[in-house]
Amino acid sequence: MQPSNGQQKTTGFSTRAVHAGNVDDVMTGGVNTPIFPSSAYRVPGPLGKVVYPRYQNIPTQEAVAQKIAALEGGECALVVSSGMAAISSVFLAFCGPGDHVVLQRDLYGGTHHLAAKELPRLGIEVTWVPSQDPEDFEAALRPNTRILYLETPSNPLMKLLDLQALAAIARRHGVLSAVDNTFATPINQNPLALGIDLVIHSATKYLNGHSDLCCGAIVARRELMDRIHGVAAAYGPSLSPYDCYLLERGMKTLAVRMRQHNENGARIAAFLDAHPQVRRVYYPGLPTHPGHAIAARQMRAFGAMLSVKLDCDAAQAQTVMERLQFFKPAVSLGGVESLACFPAQTSHAPLSPEERRALGISDSLIRLSVGIEDPEDLMADLDQALSAITEHRGNDA
Ligand SMILES: Cc1ncc(COP(=O)(O)O)c(C=O)c1O
């Protein structure tokens, strides 16, 4: 039962999402990759490969990894038990005591926490770059820098980084470049094609797409993956074959889901941008977004993540949140259903209030993960919730 991977380079994203990596069930003729639940496999003999779930070499695990690699245009991929497991595996694989990493300051709060609190404990030095200017990233590199770590669009303010320029800088200095591609997905952006070395996903989000699974993925060329694989086998963040099956099933609709996410994201962003109760919309598809030109160059579409600064205080923003009906007030993102959250209370809660202020994450900033519902229903929901602001003002007057 070998994964059929011939479709990697020549076919479209929808075809790859459906077919790449799939393992034929030769026993029954079933069209889905079988779930192989065993944790004990026959000893293969002195020259054979030992098969074991923690080594991530069960066919159910390899099948979904190949699908992700095919979508990202990478040589190989590894699926692990969370996005943070993917991120920490990359740092553990390439950094040790005395090494240095450079990260953009605008990042998912969990990654920020890992780099700020955990990496220094391992003797790894960290430098934060507060701008999006590639020259500032280059200036932060040192002879002992191992990884240039990026996230674009970033969580939650949707900052854009020029991946081609940053990949070239990293290569010139002999530093590995890594990008968290969770918000964009491989349908909208392929960092490897822009020269980036390592792509990371919280596959919990769009790749799975149904808010019922926690998992992560790394995509890279073989030589780098061998090192990551060794680290993952040692630390053990493997993903169970049952979860691999769920992820593979979710990914079959990734391209078609993203078409609707992209359309809904663009329509909701334009609607909110014109709304009198909204002060600012952070969405890379809006021509007024400071990173729009970069986004238009390196992304095929702009996704369905956006943040809004409302024209009101934190208490009124809370009322708006409570009134939303289709946008569920929940953490996480990238599922078929629309979600809303205050990053200050969720993704960026591990940061101090000062750190959040420095990033521009106010208590009333709302992040929306726009789902695949009918956009008219989502706009009506937002409109009725935002009317709370006018009513509040009316009561104050
Ligand atoms: C951009 C980004 N990267 C990584 C993660 C971490 O993923 P996980 O929760 O699957 O560990 C998240 C989680 O929200 C995220 O938004």
From TrEMBL:
GO terms for molecular function: carbon-sulfur lyase activity; pyridoxal phosphate binding. InterPro entries: Cys/Met-Metab_PyrdxlP-dep_enz, Cys_met_metab_PP, PyrdxlP-dep_Trfase, PyrdxlP-dep_Trfase_major, PyrdxlP-dep_Trfase_small. The keyword Protein transport does not apply. It holds the Pfam family Cys_Met_Meta_PP. PROSITE patterns: CYS_MET_METAB_PP. CDD domains: CGS_like. One of its GO terms (biological process) is methionine biosynthetic process. Its cofactor is pyridoxal 5'-phosphate. The keyword Lyase applies. Gene3D superfamilies: Aspartate Aminotransferase, domain 1, Type I PLP-dependent aspartate aminotransferase-like (Major domain). The modification N6-(pyridoxal phosphate)lysine is found at K205. GO terms for cellular component: cytoplasm. Keywords: Lyase, Pyridoxal phosphate. Belongs to the trans-sulfuration enzymes family. PANTHER family: TRANS-SULFURATION ENZYME FAMILY MEMBER. This is Cystathionine beta-lyase. It comes from Desulfacinum hydrothermale DSM 13146.
